[in-house]
Design brief:
heterodimer; A: 173 residues; mainly beta; Immunoglobulin-like; eleven-stranded mixed beta sheet; 1 helix; 8% helix; globular; B: 218 residues; alpha+beta; Glutaredoxin; 2 domains; eight-stranded mixed beta sheet; two-stranded antiparallel sheet; 6 helices
């Protein structure tokens, strides 16, 4: 694993030779970042679509935010009619591929807001990558009954998302 | 409507009852099921999984999100969408409830004839107050139900819905697995349909239309 990560870094280093920030975070483009705000101090789900614009695979390892005491990378699964959540150590994003953290699949679990988060607010979240690099992303706080990032999110959104719990498969293009 | 099967089966019964009464008995039982199914005329063209006759009527003894006792009988006259979950579930439970909110919106005024019953499988953390704030963040026709662990288990077992709680590591942050199905009951409290996350919103709207306004076109 370390060797692979090292060689990935090495390759990335070659490609971005001369660039000051030739790290994993620098080759990520983030969009459709939003948080589903729940009442009281209940944990919230954070979602974002990450595009890897580089020639090497990278991996998301977690996130932090000044507005939440804990942020964890989780995955929801539905197997045999049972829904459950599990911790995710690393979420790989293939070279020139993308991964959607979307409802019913991969998500950030944002726990214990340091100050109440209201729908409409922008919350700064820092995404952490396997090489130790970080990417600050603004997440839009949306109401509990939102089904997606909404019209105000940058880039095109599907107006009607199907009731699909499996929408977080990594896919290259 | 004629019942050709009824005739055939009574003929059969006359000939066979002496020799193999158990066989005739089971035929009679099958005939009774068929007749019961035909009583309302043409079967409704449901798209979701039909469970009519396979699951018991809506019945429970829980506490609603106003802190008052609630039973299944309180919801007779309403089409009920029963869903098990818990409020410390940041992803799938809110997704399901958000989708049900969209479904209710798409039903328009008909939605007033329906109620979403969100039953907590985590009563230790889900007090009526927490449940009230939670369900109202999704839809005004949603009701949060919690109660004694034994009463919740009884309801879950009644519909063969499974849930499990992981041991509390000590900080109160434990996870709960739960059945992702939505159980749909008609206004008489009869279990009619089962919806899973794989079903489309369109199918839910279509079938709820049939239950809420059988004469109207969805």
């Amino acid at each position: 694993m370390m060797t692979r990560r090292f060689s990935a870094l090495f390759a990335a280093g070659l490609i971005f030779a001369g660039a000051a920030q030739a790290d994993q975070a620098a080759q990520v483009h983030a969009e459709k970042a939003w948080i589903r705000v729940l009442p009281a101090s209940l944990p919230a789900g954070g979602y974002v679509t990450l595009h890897n614009t580089g020639d090497t695979a990278i991996a998301l390892t977690g996130a932090t935010s000044a507005r939440y005491a804990h942020v964890m990378l989780h995955q929801s699964t539905t197997e045999g009619g049972m829904g459950r959540m599990s911790m995710v150590e690393q979420l790989a994003i293939p070279a020139h591929g993308s991964v959607a953290l979307a409802p019913g699949g991969y998500h950030l679990m944002l726990m214990q807001a340091t100050k109440a988060v209201n729908a409409g607010e922008t919350v700064a979240v820092t995404l952490d990558f396997a090489d130790g690099s970080h990417l600050p992303v603004d997440f839009l706080a949306r109401p509990a009954n939102a089904v997606d990032a909404g019209d105000t999110a940058p880039a095109g959104m599907d107006p009607a998302m199907p009731m699909d719990h499996g929408g977080a498969m990594p896919h290259g293009h | 409507m004629a019942y050709p099967w009824g005739m055939a089966i009574s003929d059969l019964r006359m000939r066979a009852c002496r020799a193999i009464p158990w066989f005739a008995g089971s035929l009679l039982f099958a005939a009774a099921l068929l007749l019961a199914g035909c009583q309302r005329g043409e079967p409704l063209p449901f798209r979701l999984t039909q469970v009519t006759g396979h699951m018991p009527d809506l019945d429970f003894n829980l506490v609603n999100d106003q802190g008052k006792p609630a039973t299944g009988a309180d919801y007779r006259g309403k089409v009920v969408l029963l869903y098990f979950g818990y409020t410390h579930c940041p992803d799938v439970c809110p997704l399901t409830l958000a989708h049900l909110h969209v479904v209710m919106q798409r039903l328009g005024p008909l939605a007033d004839g329906a109620r979403i019953l969100f039953v907590s499988v985590d009563p230790a953390r889900d007090t009526p107050e927490v449940m009230h704030a939670y369900v109202n963040a999704f839809d005004k026709r949603a009701v949060g139900l919690t109660g004694k662990p034994g009463d919740i288990e009884a309801l879950s077992k009644r519909y063969r819905s499974a849930f499990s709680r992981e041991p509390d590591p000590g900080d109160g942050n434990y996870e709960v697995s739960h059945s992702s199905a939505i159980y749909i009951f008609d206004a008489q409290g009869h279990a009619r349909l089962l919806s899973t996350p794989a079903d489309s919103q369109d199918d839910l709207v279509h079938d709820l239309h049939l239950l809420l306004a059988p004469g109207a076109k969805p």
